[in-house]
Amino acid sequence: MKHLLQIDWTDLQYTADEFSRDVYSFPVTIRVLIGVTLVFIFIIVVLLGVILGSRIYKTQRENKRNYLRTKYQPIFTKLLFDDDEWMENSDVFQQIDETDLKIQFHREVLNNEIIHLHSNFTGETALRLEKLYVILQFHEDAYKRLQSKQWHIVAKAMRELALMNVQEAHKMLSRFLNSKNEILRMEARVAMMKLSDSEPLSFLSKETEPLTDWDKANIHAMLTRMKEPVIPDFTMWLNSPNKTVIHFCIMMIGYYRQQESAPVLVKMLDHPDEYIRLAAIRALRELNAHSSEENLITLYPLETSEIQHEILKTLEVIGKDKSTHLLEKILKQPITEYRLAIQAVRALLVTSPLGQQKVKEMQQHGEPVLQSIILHALDKRL
Amino acid sequence: MKVLVCEDDEMVLKMVEFKLQKEGYEVHLAKDGKEALEKISGLRPDIIITDIMMPYLTGLEIVHQVRKQLGLITPIIIVSSIGLEKTVLEAFQLGADDFITKPFSPNELSVRVKKLLMKSA
Amino acid sequence: MGLVFYYFTKFADHFILIYSGLLFATYFLLSTFSAMDIKRYMRRNSFIDYRDILTAPSAPSISIIAPAYNESLTIVENVRSLLNIHYVNFEVIIVNDGSKDNTLQLMIDAYELEAAPVAIEQKLESKPIVAVYKSRIPSLNRLTVVDKVNGGKADALNAGINISRYGIFAAIDVDCILEYESLLKMVKPFMEQTEQDRVIAVGGVVRIANSCEVKEGKIIRVNLPDQMIPRIQVLEYIRAFLLGRMAWSRLNGLILISGAFGMFDKKIAIDCGGYNHRTVGEDMELVIRMRRYMEEKKEKYRVVYLPDPLCWTEAPSSLKILSKQRNRWTRGTAETLWIHRRLILNPKYHFLGMISMPFWFLFEWLAPIVEMTAFLYLIMMAFLGILNVELFVTLFCLIYVFAIMYSTAAILFEELSFHQYKRKRDIFRLLGTAFIEPVIIHPLTVYYAIRGNLDLMTGVKNWGEMTRAGFARKKTTG
């Protein structure tokens, strides 16, 4: 048996020698091509190794994660909804396996579960989750991750600390306010906003970079997650040199229905920037600001069609008798843009009884185009 | 009292189940809109709690079908992360009885369940 | 004469060498850029919660436009799954492009549709609209069905744009299955744009749904296709999307967003004239025209591509349909390049003119032609008995090994990023496919591309109707 397995090395040696001699006899181009091919084959083998390694690793992790999730689901339920609240940390540690708290990956899974649950609940349940988070020392893990060289890990840790309301993290985050990475800078602002006790939005006064719509969504989402909504009077930033800050604040005035800000919004109708005027008109609609009717009517003829459309939408909500004349005029003129005409009809229908009568007349005697537009406007689904 | 909870996030589903069971309700679960509708017509729950964004059928369509197709007056509570005024109004117009935005407090949910069940009894 | 021939063969040998060398180098560069971009994308979105977009007052509204032509097998469930997408302010517009089957009636029955008196402004040219339908069910308010005279895909999309209400539109193939989160993910780049750097279009990776478990328009489980032809296309798609287009997105030189799923700034699309009826490559043509428009306006802009698998589509599973599809793709590319030939190597169009367009010309359109020519040349040389056998064999081996390496790299990218194929068996089968693809299907796709060019020259304008097997029928075959 042993004999059979013995390889005749001299034979192989010979073949290899012969082959390399042959190779050297080839022209340069061919030799280069063979060399490159061999390199490619080597790369393929390496890639295959990585693929398989990654596959095995990922499957293992996935299984472990699922196992841990099913294991801890009833335990979490008990901890969150049991009537007698656990006062001592030991109550918690009794429930959770020590080993699961020691192994890094297991900690991560538990941590993610807590954060996931926290994103769905408020009230006592959320408070208990926050307490659990600290008892299990997950905030310490997050502090460690703040030191990471990879910015996305830092960002994640910041978010986590903010969401879990770890107040003492506030000062640790301030050093990221001037980070070179723009996303990290914004994340630090938003996280600190959540953790600050007073004037959470004060950073808006100093904001010099443009906020994207995504940043605005981000800030808004964090604002809605704050415990006692400390919603400031957003008019204080309407003089900001940063247009995007103004835009955000106008949106928030509308969203939080800050009625008393309506007169200030009316002033914003003169703003040179179209997209600020657009936001202001929309916010006036959300505030139901009847007082702005006349301003919008005067503004209408001077505006771009985008804004005209927005004005008409707002007049549909706030318009009264005064608007009738303008709306009728729009419909009597040759129709340039259907959506304006449709919106004008809709507004006319609700502004005054006279308006309704006018629509009826036009429906019977108007041009065919106008008639079809009125039919369209009457169908609420369209 | 039978409660049907429809929610596609399993972890949340289990938590709500536990909470409501503790309050003494018979809790049934559905992980998607289709399953929910089947259970509604099969089990005739006394109250329905549903998310809006779910596979196959949205919560709003469930409300519509329960009211129009099945003709039931079973109280329905919507629990959704879309708390925009427009969506809330749409839900009420279709016939939902209550709207809770996510994140929500399970305690509050159970209070509202109790209230609605008393009203409908 | 002999001398001329000698120099010709010398030139040809060198040309083949240089062309392959250039090809390798570009592919290598592209995959590097791709890797960078995928990594950046994954990092940027690793800590955020897409659900924040749902409640954001700053989130834009979206019109989904899906042309449908003879889709009766799957239309009802596909519309249902579109309506279930996770987003707040959106509408779904299905454009029935004069189907010859009962596509329209099925929708009318399933969704209780009735004709609605819509006044339509013809901002873009399109064939006449027969009727517009809305549902009687209030919870289906988002759905609009347009019935129009047949005019092709571009025409249907234009009609959809005319009727759409919102500022961003998503053009999709109605038979595609979108992931629930797809709109949230696709809209994020639009939300990240600044005044100085506008996002004009966003594309998403398209994946192959054959053999996947599908329940009522939702992917339940991702499987590798059992049949060879779709399986090979899985590899092609991973390569094209993860290694190719991501790189172009990184370089901001992307000129093709697949017609299966793309999102566009409506105002810019309308300003530059909407979809072009005169080409079968309307998806690529629109992106180039929108870019051209922005270049000519001298405004900064971006076309973004996302590596996330957001859209699943059924790939041709027979050679006959595959040949039609590839034929059409080739014609689309050729027509588009021809329409915009003025841009090629035109420094006024910066990266678009100097790099993207020439690349597309050289390696997308010309590659099959070069391959075919080289093949014919080799045959001729063999016939004449002066074939440089050593060169031929080594070069062939090199190209073969390179193809496998490139595919393996693509599989690695997929494994490290989104690893959709969870089973180990699937990965092995995919790797096996990488070994046989270059010798089995690749020659055929080259042939189809050549046929496409020939058809174009002889004036065939057929869009290549694609018959579908339908997802419902081949559930759980895996």
What is the compact description of this entry?
The complex is a heterotrimer of chains A (382), B (121) and C (478). With 121 residues, chain B is an alpha/beta fold. Chain B contains five helices and five strands, in the order E-H-E-H-E-H-E-H-E-H.
Description:
The complex is a heterotrimer of chains A (382), B (121) and C (478). Chain A is mainly alpha-helical and 382 residues long. Chain A contains 22 helices and no strands. Chain A is extended. Chain A starts with a helix and ends with a helix. The mean pLDDT of chain A is 89. Helix content of chain B is 50%, strand content 19%. The longest helix of chain B has 15 residues, at 106-120. Chain B is globular and about 30 Å long. The mean pLDDT of chain B is 92. Chain C contains 13 helices and twelve strands. In chain C, strand 9 and strand 10 form a beta hairpin. The interface between A and C is large, with 59 and 53 residues.
Q: Which sequence of SSEs, written as H and E, runs from N to C of chain C?
A: HHEHEHEEEHEEHEEEHEHHEHHHH
| SSE pattern of chain B, N- to C-terminal | EHEHEHEHEH
State the share of residues found in helices of chain B, binned by percent.
40-55%
Q: Summarize the main sheet of chain B.
A: 5 strands, parallel
Radius of gyration of chain C: 23 Å
Largest interface: A-C, 59 and 53 residues
The biggest beta sheet of chain C reads: 10 strands, mixed
What value does the Rg of chain B take, in angstroms? 13 Å
Give the quaternary arrangement of the chains.
heterotrimer
- Secondary-structure-derived class of chain B: alpha/beta
Strand content of chain B: 15-25%
